[in-house]
Amino acid sequence: MKSIRARPHRLTRERYRGYVSVSFTACIESRKPFFTTAKRVGIFVETLSIAVCKYSCNIVYCFMPDHVHLVVSGKSSVSDTLMVMETFKQQTGWWLKENERFTEWQQNFHDRIIRNTAEYAETIRYVVNNPVRAGLVDWWEDYPFTGAIGLDLREHLIDMLPY
Hints:
- The chain is of the alpha+beta class.
- It has helices at 38-54, 81-99, 117-128, 130-133, 153-159; strands at residues 21-27, 57-63, 67-74, 110-114, 146-149.
- The radius of gyration is 16 Å and the shape is globular.
- The termini are far apart.
């Protein structure tokens, strides 16, 4: 079997600091369905809440059965979106090791710096509508594992109209 080399992030850490928004996607190894109960997702949301508070960010999230979409936005000049993601994956990775021995995160995650308000609005809409596209619900608000920390998601979406 050919070994796959892990690629380091292509951007410097400084690009993830301050008033920046970043879209992250992290997958469960082998795309195993895991985020299927309110109890499990609640544990991961609590971990996210601690990380966004510590690193001065807001977040919009959607936990799909086998992956999570996050849009992390810095609220100050000292915000660190990358540390939010790294802390979240590290803390939940330990939780998985202790509580779900046969479930783990894939080694890395996908990230994309959001460059402007139109792209930000498009990304948020993509994230919240992911369960709709997957056929899990008819309307994004019906999906129980979509939400936000640090902002009111429904009002935030209304504020982005039109773009």
